[in-house]
Design goal:
The structure holds 2 protein chains of 2 kinds. Chain A is an alpha+beta fold. Chain A is built from 3 helices and 4 strands, in the order βαββαβα. Chain A is globular and about 40 Å long. Helices cover about 20% and strands about 30% of the residues of chain B. The chains are: A alpha+beta, B alpha+beta. At the A-B interface, strand 2, strand 3, helix 2, strand 4 and helix 3 of A face helix 1, strand 1, strand 2, strand 6 and helix 3 of B.
Chain lengths: ~110, ~170
């Protein structure tokens, strides 16, 4: 069974705010699949451009809201696709990713 | 930068992750999409062996990938570019034409696995230029008139002169 997860707050509905033809998230087979998120204000959908760090922080806060509305949370993540506009950021992330992989994997 | 913050929000047993440098819409610097377990039980996809889905016309000797994999309740499709389903030859065209060809091929591949486009839960789409975003969206709407899947779109460098590549996860 496939269930569309509605946006828990207006700003997370990119279909309404920006015409993106997508659902905020889909629950299926015991998993929650979230659409790609960018840094927007969850209350009104306004874009919130900033540094890599500030944009990522806003995205994580929105992910918490969206996952909480499904009964899930950041503690239950099984996969993350992180896309960044800068190769510098990407390289730094990849270096750190290898260090992170020394920890227990899910 | 990104990782310092990442560790604050995901401190223990970090999930599988892919980091890519891409072109994001509207000048944003970061975009994240995630898959999370909805319940405490072990996801069904982890409890069953994986099965390769490779209908006759989809065999591509020499490529180190399967067109699709069924695992538990899910079917994972490889990233597809626009090809003639009968010959496997590239079917390059406009962004709209390539998008239509890819989604048509995806429907056939899912049908061969006993599924359909209507069961898609997550789509990742890559476009050679985000200026063409609306040309993807307009065709996409034709295939998903209601309750579209969760989706991520970004600009990326694609091989073979293709303009669009799409991958997805669907229910089996």
């Amino acid at each position: 069974m496939r269930e569309v997860i509605p946006a828990p707050v207006p700003g997370l509905d990119l279909r309404r705010e920006y015409g993106h033809h997508q659902s905020p998230a889909i629950r299926a087979g015991g998993m929650v699949f979230c659409s790609g998120m960018v840094a927007i204000d969850p209350q009104n959908g306004e874009r919130q451009h900033g540094t890599v760090t500030s944009e990522a922080r806003r995205i994580f806060e929105k992910l918490k809201l969206l996952l909480a509305s499904t009964g899930s949370s950041l503690d239950r993540l099984v996969q993350v696709h992180a896309t960044a506009s800068s190769t510098t950021c990407s390289t730094a992330s990849t270096d750190n990713m290898f260090r992170m992989r020394r920890r227990p994997a899910p | 930068m990104l990782n310092r913050l990442y560790r604050q929000y995901v401190p223990n047993a970090p999930p599988a992750r892919t980091v890519m440098s891409v072109q994001i819409e509207a000048g944003f610097k970061v975009m994240l999409d995630v898959v999370a377990a909805a319940e405490t039980r072990r996801p069904a996809a982890m409890m069953y062996p994986r099965q390769v889905i490779e209908p006759g016309g989809w065999r591509r000797p020499g490529l180190s990938l399967s067109p699709a994999i069924r695992a538990g309740e899910f079917i994972f499709l490889s990233g597809l570019t626009a090809t003639d389903p009968a010959t496997g030859a590239p079917a390059r065209g406009t962004v709209a034409a390539e998008t239509r060809q890819i989604l048509t091929n995806m429907g056939e591949l899912l049908a061969a696995a006993g599924s359909s486009l209507a069961t898609m839960v997550k789509v990742n789409a890559f476009i050679y230029s985000m200026l063409e975003y609306e040309n993807v969206n307009s065709v996409y709407r034709e295939f998903f008139p209601a309750d579209p899947p969760a989706r991520t779109i970004c600009g990326a460098g694609l091989i073979g002169g293709h303009k669009v590549e799409i991958e997805c996860v669907a229910l089996a």
